[in-house]
């Protein structure tokens, strides 16, 4: 746990500027078994303190890996000096940041730190199960990763905070050869918020996941390539979440709006079917905790939900305090930094399309000739909203029934066009949170949604 | 500055005392000075000071590793204890080894002292030149920095490497706009050891800005055809990176899933293809000096005149599989140029596509790839016609290397790589 040596330093904040001071520790524990060989066995810990100072529309920032009174004084001085340098050279003359109230937000949850043996033994138990129960594989991978981020936040104007966010995952990968000798692969992450010992009590509880993955892989090795072209498809909640994050979410981050994203011209306009509502949830969704709850951001703004699309209409952006001032919007706590040495950037938190009323089986039954795309291994999108997702598991749908499994393919489209074709929205939300969003810095994020029926371009082979 | 030679020596001794029969340790410190432009306007200046201590201990073939960013006694003691606890929990594997017969070497690379005022001026100059020459370009983000590092690597086989390095880095993200029409975003940049030239002349920055300004109004390909894909240098680097990962890196070689696993010394590409990893080439800025296994980094050919000359394997995977290890970690790529100009290559293509960026899923283990051609132009009857959007390309990485149409004589040098344009036949291009 971080000792609080920064709150008392508020008296040292320079006058006439707005200051953030943050101490932080990121911990990572990782183990990887590659076809039984232990190829990764690492623990890492990165800590330090940083300061950011706002002056007339520009920021100065400084960080150091030390964490003592001298280090705090040094980063405060250097950040202030950098802000003064920028103000002198750039002279923006912008106003102060908008107020976000004052207070204190503390979210300290259990942060145990299991020994490395715990991770190794867990991975070995799963690897042994795969070796014994999954014949015919040409490769297998079991990775265990736990990370945590603890922050002490102290600001001149806003809320101070102390938060800890641990998360833990097991990643399973199975590879087999198709009848023609080509390797086919499937991958699944399992886990979520919490330290490893609270998320995973017994490796045997994951064996059904292994069985399910193996069964899908055996179907996939006999799979076919889908036909290329635009098709009516059902995409799973996992893919809907990827769409919400990659293809829409990034375009409505206010810094990317200022950088020229498609959302710049679409605020207040219809960008999706009226069945589509999309929200960047802070910490609670439909009465349940989100996968990675955020209660305060690194600018001292209390976290609230950001409604991005309401009934098909683009209603808002995600903001920092600075962009909220520029757009006349309310900041909702999206400014987050990954390491102590990173400045806060506008980041998504738990971005999802809100569930509707359709049942998955009715959605599949409604498709005469199309595809059900289930799992993705990759997703990229453009600030124009043009997206491409790799699909690593799916099935044909013929006359309302699932058919043959599919080999790897891609789906693509333009988000604000494709979302207008959505005519059924499932009633169950699926979340994923095992990856990192990349944008100058990595960041853990949650993404989710229900299955949706839409028209989408299929890559075929 | 802390004496890292002493620190790493002490860490190695602590690891030995805790039971390690092999060990290595890297201590480093870095200072970064950075300017950011966001949405076309200066936004931020950063000064960062960071530390790093990476240690690995091996006891009876059991290996553990720990990384921290502190050097105080308590943190180092804890890291050594954690490292050996990790190692003792691992399964023994005699393939974990360090380079034998290590020696002491000192390396100094690049520009160690930052000229912060001049760095700001070059950044402001780039923004001004973009505004004047490319008025339709909107800069989403520009990050320029000077990074200086000092590091010491030591292992139990006698290697003691001291390195001081410093370089300027430019990363530019932008798109083209006209009214509500916009191009795809594009990222470019490079590293350099001096501020003598305007950043506009670094790597392919000027050409990339000019290309993206022509990609604001796009058309989708209306049909599906098999044609030629002309990759820009940056995009060629990405494809070759995927090829190296898929067919020659540690994972697929160790698991035996690489389709090139039995191809060492054999023809895997057209004889015009020569790809090297050459951190010592004069064009590289602050290239790799030594590997984490304790070997001095040497230049090597990955593919020479179409033959697979080396995998990109570590000593560990070499010991596990018997394939020779790579002579560096796979950085600083050089692709040998060809005879034709880019203009001549375009003129020789009946139907094809110039691909500036590929947005695709991870290629399959067998090399199949499929994705969207971004920042791309259609070629018809030897001429560039339209910029394209919503256009998919697909093919196979291994087949592609056997189906080379041409390689340009022009190359782009960006401090990380030296790459030409390259054209490959047999690629499927399909519209919406």
Percent strand of chain B: 35-45%
Q: For the CA atoms, what is the radius of gyration of chain A?
A: 24 Å
Number of helices of chain A: 9
Mean pLDDT across all amino acids of chain B:
96
In terms of DSSP E residues, the strand content of chain A is 35-45%
How many strand segments of chain B? 22
Spatial separation of the terminal alpha carbons of chain A: 51 Å
Characterize the structure shown.
The complex is a heterodimer of chains A (461) and B (432). Chain A has 461 residues and is α+β, with helices and mostly antiparallel strands. Chain A is built from 9 helices and 26 strands. In chain A, the strands form 6 sheets. In chain A, strands 1, 2, 3, 4, 5, 6 and 7 form a 7-stranded mixed beta sheet that branches. A 6-stranded mixed beta sheet of chain A has the order 13-12-9-16-25-22, with helices on one face. In chain A, a hairpin with a 5-residue loop joins strand 6 (159-177) and strand 7 (183-193). Chain A starts with 17 loop residues before the first strand and ends with a strand. Chain B is of the alpha+beta class and 432 residues long. Helix content of chain B is 23%, strand content 41%. Chain B contains 9 helices and 22 strands. Chain B has helices at residues 4-17, 73-89, 116-133, 205-213, 233-248, 250-255, 315-321, 342-347, 397-402, and strands at 22-38, 41-59, 62-68, 104-110, 137-155, 160-178, 181-182, 186-192, 218-219, 224-231, 275-277, 300-304, 307-308, 333-335, 351-355, 357-360, 368-374, 376-380, 383-388, 392-396, 404-413, 418-430. In chain B, strands 9, 10, 15, 16, 17, 18, 19, 20, 21 and 22 form a 10-stranded mixed beta sheet that branches. In chain B, strands 1, 2, 3, 4, 5, 6, 7 and 8 form an 8-stranded mixed beta sheet that branches. Chain B is globular and about 70 Å long. The interface between A and B is large, with 80 and 74 residues.
């Amino acid at each position: 746990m971080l000792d609080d040596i920064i709150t008392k330093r508020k008296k040292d904040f320079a006058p006439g500027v707005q200051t953030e001071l943050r101490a932080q520790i990121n911990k990572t524990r990782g183990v990887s078994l590659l076809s039984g060989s232990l190829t990764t066995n690492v623990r890492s810990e990165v800590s330090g303190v940083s300061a950011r100072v706002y002056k007339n529309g520009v920021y100065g920032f400084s960080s150091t890996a030390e964490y003592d009174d001298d280090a705090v004084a040094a980063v405060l001085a250097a950040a202030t000096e950098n802000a003064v340098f920028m103000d002198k050279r750039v002279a923006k003359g912008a106003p102060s940041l908008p107020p976000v109230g004052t207070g204190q937000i503390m979210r300290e949850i259990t942060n145990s730190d299991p020994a490395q043996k715990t991770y190794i033994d867990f991975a070995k138990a799963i690897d042994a199960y795969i070796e014994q129960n999954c014949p015919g594989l040409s490769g297998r991978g079991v990775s265990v990763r736990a990370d945590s981020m603890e922050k002490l936040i102290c600001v001149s104007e806003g809320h101070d905070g102390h938060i800890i966010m641990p998360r833990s995952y097991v990643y399973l990968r199975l590879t087999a050869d198709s009848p023609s000798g080509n390797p086919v692969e499937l991958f699944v992450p399992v886990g979520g918020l919490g330290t490893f010992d609270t998320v995973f009590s017994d490796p045997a509880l994951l064996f059904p996941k292994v069985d399910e993955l193996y069964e899908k892989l055996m179907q996939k090795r006999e799979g076919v390539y889908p036909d290329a072209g635009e098709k009516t498809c059902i995409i799973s909640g996992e893919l809907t979440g990827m769409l919400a994050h990659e293809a829409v979410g990034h375009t409505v981050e206010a810094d990317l709006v200022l950088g020229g994203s498609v959302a710049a011209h679409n605020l207040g306009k219809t960008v999706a079917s009226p069945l589509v509502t999309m929200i960047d949830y802070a910490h609670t969704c439909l009465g349940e905790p989100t996968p990675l709850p955020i209660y305060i951001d690194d600018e001292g703004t209390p976290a609230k939900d950001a409604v991005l699309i309401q009934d098909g209409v683009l209603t808002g952006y995600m903001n920092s305090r600075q962009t909220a001032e520029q757009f006349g919007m309310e900041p909702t706590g999206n400014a987050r930094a990954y390491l102590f040495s990173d400045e806060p950037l506008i980041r998504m938190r738990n971005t999802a399309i809100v569930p509707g009323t359709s049942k998955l089986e009715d959605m599949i039954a409604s498709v005469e000739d199309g595809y059900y795309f289930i799992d993705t291994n990759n997703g990229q999108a453009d600030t124009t909203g043009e997206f491409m997702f790799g699909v690593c598991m799916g099935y044909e749908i013929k006359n309302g029934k699932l058919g043959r499994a599919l080999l790897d393919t891609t789906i693509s489209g333009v988000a604000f066009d494709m979302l207008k074709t959505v005519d059924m929205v499932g009633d169950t939300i699926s979340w994923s949170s095992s990856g990192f969003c990349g944008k100058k810095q990595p960041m853990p994020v949650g993404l989710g949604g229900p299955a949706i029926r839409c028209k989408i371009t299929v890559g075929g082979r | 500055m802390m004496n890292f030679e002493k620190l790493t020596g002490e860490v190695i001794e602590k690891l030995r005392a805790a039971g390690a029969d092999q060990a290595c340790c890297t201590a480093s410190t870095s200072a970064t000075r950075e300017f950011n432009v966001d949405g076309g306007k200066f936004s931020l200046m950063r000064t960062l000071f960071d530390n790093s201590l990476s240690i690995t201990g091996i006891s009876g073939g059991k290996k553990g590793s720990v990384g921290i960013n502190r050097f105080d006694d308590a943190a180092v003691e804890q890291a050594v204890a954690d490292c050996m606890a990790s190692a003792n929990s691992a399964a023994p594997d005699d393939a974990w080894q360090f380079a034998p017969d290590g020696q002491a070497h000192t390396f100094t690379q690049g520009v160690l002292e930052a000229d912060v005022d001049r760095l700001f001026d070059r950044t402001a100059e780039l923004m001004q030149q973009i505004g004047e020459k490319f008025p339709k370009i909107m800069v989403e983000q520009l990050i320029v920095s000077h990074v200086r590092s000092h590091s010491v690597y030591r292992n139990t086989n006698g290697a003691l490497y001291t390195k001081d390095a410093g370089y300027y880095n430019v990363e530019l993200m932008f798109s083209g706009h006209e009214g509500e029409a916009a191009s795809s975003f594009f990222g470019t940049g490079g590293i350099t050891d001096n501020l003598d030239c305007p950043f506009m002349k670094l790597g392919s920055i000027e050409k990339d800005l000019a290309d993206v300004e022509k990609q604001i109004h796009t058309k989708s390909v209306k049909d599906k055809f098999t044609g030629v894909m002309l990759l820009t240098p940056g995009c060629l680097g990405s494809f070759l990176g995927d090829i190296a990962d898929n067919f020659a890196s540690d994972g697929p070689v160790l698991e035996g899933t690489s389709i090139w696993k039995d191809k060492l010394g054999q023809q895997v590409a057209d004889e015009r293809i020569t790809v090297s990893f050459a951190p010592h080439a004069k064009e590289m800025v602050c290239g790799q000096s030594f590997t984490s296994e304790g070997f001095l980094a040497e230049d090597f050919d990955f593919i020479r005149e179409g033959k697979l000359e080396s995998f990109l394997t570590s000593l560990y995977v070499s010991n596990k599989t018997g394939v020779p290890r790579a002579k560096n970690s796979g950085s600083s790529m050089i692709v040998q140029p060809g005879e034709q100009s880019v203009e001549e290559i375009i003129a020789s293509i009946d139907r094809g596509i110039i691909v500036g960026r590929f947005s695709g899923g991870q290629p399959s283990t067998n090399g199949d790839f499929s994705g969207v051609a971004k920042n791309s132009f259609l070629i018809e009857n030897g001429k560039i016609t339209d910029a394209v959007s919503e256009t998919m390309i697909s093919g196979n990485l291994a087949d592609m290397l056997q189906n080379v149409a041409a390689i340009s004589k022009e190359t782009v040098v960006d401090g990380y790589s030296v790459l030409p344009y390259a054209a490959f036949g047999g690629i499927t291009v399909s519209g919406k």
